[in-house]
């Protein structure tokens, strides 16, 4: 004896379907919310909120002696760049940049352009000396690679003036 399944009732819109409309509408709402979240993540990534370039990934700090552009957000084992643009000072024949041990724990310096004319190891870090032949300031670029993940705060010293910098490195 075969049993005939019960047919679903006819809905108000004339279709004869057995569905859980309320569940489907909740699912659609959650799906649209997920689309918005994915779109937000993509926009944040394009702005640099997760490192690797973009306006949010880089911070500019200006002092009386220099303008420092450094990574605000980076990626562990990813390459970044720190730029020190010295302001003109005709009285100075050389410019210096002190990188403390706290900086060395976070970043490995892979390359410096131009190369320093002299490097001195001091208590608490190393001081790099650069030639200032035209006394117009000059630009120093440090190519960095993050060595640890997490938040880091350190003070560099630009021509004997301390500058506090901070970075967040994503794993």
Key terms:
single chain, 171 residues, alpha+beta, 6-stranded mixed beta sheet, 5-stranded antiparallel beta sheet, 44% strand
Q: Provide the CATH topology of the domain at 58-170.
A: Immunoglobulin-like
| Overall residue-averaged pLDDT value | 88
Judging by the overall fold, what is the CATH architecture of the domain at 58-170? Sandwich
Could you give the distance between the termini? 65 Å
What is the number of strand segments?
Answer: 11
Biggest sheet overview: 6 strands, mixed
How much β-strand is present in the residues? Answer: 35-45%
For the record, the CATH class of the domain at 58-170 is: Mainly Beta
Order of helices and strands: HEEEEEHEEEEEE
| Cα shape | rod-shaped
Helix content percent band: 10-25%
3D structure, described in words:
With 171 residues, the protein is an alpha+beta fold. The chain has a domain at 58-170: Sandwich (Immunoglobulin-like), CATH 2.60.40. It is built from 2 helices and 11 strands, in the order αβββββαββββββ. The chain has helices at 21-47, 101-106; strands spanning 58-62, 66-71, 73-75, 79-86, 94-100, 107-113, 118-122, 125-131, 139-146, 150-158, 161-170. Strand 7 and strand 8 form a beta hairpin. The radius of gyration is 28 Å and the shape is rod-shaped. The protein starts with 20 loop residues before the first helix and ends with a strand. The model has no long low-confidence stretch (mean pLDDT 88).
């Amino acid at each position: 004896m075969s049993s005939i399944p019960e047919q679903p009732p006819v809905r108000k819109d004339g279709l004869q379907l057995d569905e859980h409309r309320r569940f489907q509408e909740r699912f659609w709402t959650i799906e649209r919310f997920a689309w918005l979240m994915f779109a937000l993540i993509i926009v944040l990534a394009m702005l640099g909120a997760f490192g690797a370039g973009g306006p949010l990934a880089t911070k500019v700090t200006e002092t009386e002696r220099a303008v420092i552009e450094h990574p605000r957000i980076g990626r562990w084992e990813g390459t970044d760049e720190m730029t020190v643009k010295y302001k003109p000072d005709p009285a100075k024949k050389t410019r210096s940049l002190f990188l403390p041990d706290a900086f060395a724990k976070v970043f490995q310096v892979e390359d410096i352009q131009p190369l320093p004319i002299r490097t001195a190891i001091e208590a608490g870090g190393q001081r790099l000396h650069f030639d200032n032949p035209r006394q117009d300031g000059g630009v120093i670029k440090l190519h960095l690679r993050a060595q640890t993940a997490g938040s880091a705060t350190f003070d560099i010293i630009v021509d004997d003036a301390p500058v506090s910098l901070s970075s967040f490195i994503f794993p």
